[in-house]
Amino acid sequence: MRILIALLVVIVVLVLAGLALLATGTYNFAADAPHDARTSAIVEYARERSIARRIRDLEVPRLDDAAQVAEGAGHYAAMCTGCHLAPGLSDTELRRGLYPQPPDLTKRRAGSSPQRSFWILKHGLKLTGMPAWGTTHDDASLWGIVAFLEKLPDMSAGDYAALTRKPEPELAPGAPAKAGPPEHDHSTHKH
Fold first, then answer.
1. CB contact at 8 A, 81 and 93
2. Are 121 and 144 in contact (CB under 8 A)?
3. Where are the domains of the chain?
4. 18, 20, 89, 91 - which has most CB atoms within 10 Å?
5. Rounded to whole angstroms, how far apart are CA atoms 107 and 37?
6. Predicted model pTM
7. Residue 87 in contact with residue 155, Cβ under 8 Å?
8. pLDDT tens digits, residue range 67-95?
9. Is there a contact between 69 and 144 (Cβ–Cβ < 8 Å)?
10. DSSP notation for the chain
């Protein structure tokens, strides 16, 4: 009985200490101040257990259709490269400011699976900045992105550019070419 009481006292003290840490504003939630190792380990463990539980019965459709991969590449180019990079792109202004740092999806990742990728794309991840694309995209589009992600680590910058290149719009004969938007000037930005 004494052990049970002692354990209960320890739990109460830890909970009160945690609440005091939160209430005093001591814990720094700034994106440029990483979590300590214990907090990172707890968040990572809880996130991975949550995902593993939710993807157990998720069935993967065929992911080898070239049109599906190309459609997924288009979505990826429009929505994902700023955070997750592309072949030939080593960093972005947006990515440098994010914590936790988004994974570089151009590299193979241990523990990755089509089910996991689909679930994360569809539902997003709290505390990471990863949006829930299932609110704006149907499952077929998300599986297309997954199909593309399966091929991405083996792509060269040239392969990626060819797959994501948009055709130039046709102009009426004699029509002047429309100038594009001005380039974003990074010379005054902090790097």
1. no
2. no
3. 35-164
4. 89
5. 24
6. 0.78
7. yes
8. 999 999 999 999 999 999 999 999 999 99
9. yes
10. -HHHHHHHHHHHHHHHHHHHHHHTT-S---TTSPPPHHHHHHHHHHHHHHHHHHHTTPPP-----HHHHHHHHHHHHHHTHHHH--TT----HHHHT-SSPPP-TTS--TT--HHHHHHHHHH-BTTTTB--GGGTS-HHHHHHHHHHHHHGGG--HHHHHHHHPPPPPPPPTTPPPPP-PPPPP-TTS--
Question: Which residue's structure tokens are 């300590």?
Answer: 36
Whether residue 57 contacts residue 118, with contact meaning beta carbons closer than 8 Å, is answered with: no
Fold classification of 35-164 is Cytochrome Bc1 Complex; Chain D, domain 2 (1.10.760)
Read off the tokens for 80. Answer: 């994902």
**Token pair recorded at residue 45:** 């463990």
**Is residue 118 a contact partner of residue 143, using CB atoms and an 8 Å limit?**
yes
What's the CA gap between 106 and 85, in Å, rounded? 7
